[in-house]
Design brief:
With 208 residues, the chain is α/β, with parallel strands linked by helices. It is built from 8 helices and 6 strands.
């Protein structure tokens, strides 16, 4: 069933956009996962071809144009979770063993070492490509995140990532996550075909 997005952001199709030196993008966790994690394509439910082609291509164009790229420290937590989950799924598929998260983490020392090595490699690449945003998970931030949660369809990670984003004065987000299109006052740069289609129908697609 198609997702009924109520688009509040401006949406830019990265497949036809040229990054500018004046651009400053917060790069969402899902993009880092596909660009830097070596085994993303080996997951039982691998990324779509567009996710493995369009986003790395756009990042390369950003770097060539000298656009600014930013990362949020909370992406490390999200990446570690996603990579461990993917490695466990790969292990289950190859071994035929139905293993839970805790068992995988504590009982499979070799696999755990692989997870750690992958997360270290991924985060090293992210740090090399993007500048850090300050992330303070204090009472004012959590209160603001809870207020945002009432009107914008975001998960817990994204609530805090967007608080860091807005406090830094940024408005541009590079993401495949359609939830971000529910946020007013930002520009969502994406190759998500459903988001682009809905944004076009709602008059929210921006051509630069």
């Amino acid at each position: 069933m198609p997702i009924n997005y109520a688009v509040q952001a401006q949406v830019i199709d990265i497949r036809t956009d040229d990054p500018q030196p004046t651009d400053s993008f917060l790069v969402d966790t899902n993009i880092w996962f596909w660009v830097t994690y070596t085994r993303a394509s080996s997951a039982p439910m691998p990324p779509r071809r567009s996710q493995l082609v369009d986003y790395p291509g756009y990042l390369r164009r950003c770097l060539a144009a000298k656009s600014r790229l930013y990362r949020c420290g909370l992406s490390l937590a999200e990446l570690a979770h996603l990579i461990e989950k993917t490695e466990r799924e790969i292990f289950k598929a190859s071994s035929g063993t139905d293993i839970g998260t805790k068992e995988f983490r504590h009982n499979q020392a070799t696999e755990r070492a692989t997870v750690v090595a992958e997360v270290q490699s991924v985060w090293g690449q992210v740090k090399a490509l993007a500048s850090a945003l300050d992330t303070n998970v204090d009472d004012p931030t959590t209160d603001a995140a809870l207020m945002r949660f009432q009107t914008q369809s975001l998960d817990g990670y994204d609530l805090f990532i967007l608080e860091s984003h807005s406090r830094a004065g940024l408005i541009q987000v590079l993401t495949d996550d359609g939830d971000f299109c529910s946020v007013p006052g930002i520009q969502v740069f994406t190759a998500n075909a459903n988001v682009i289609s809905v944004a076009t129908a709602q008059g929210k697609l921006l051509h630069r």
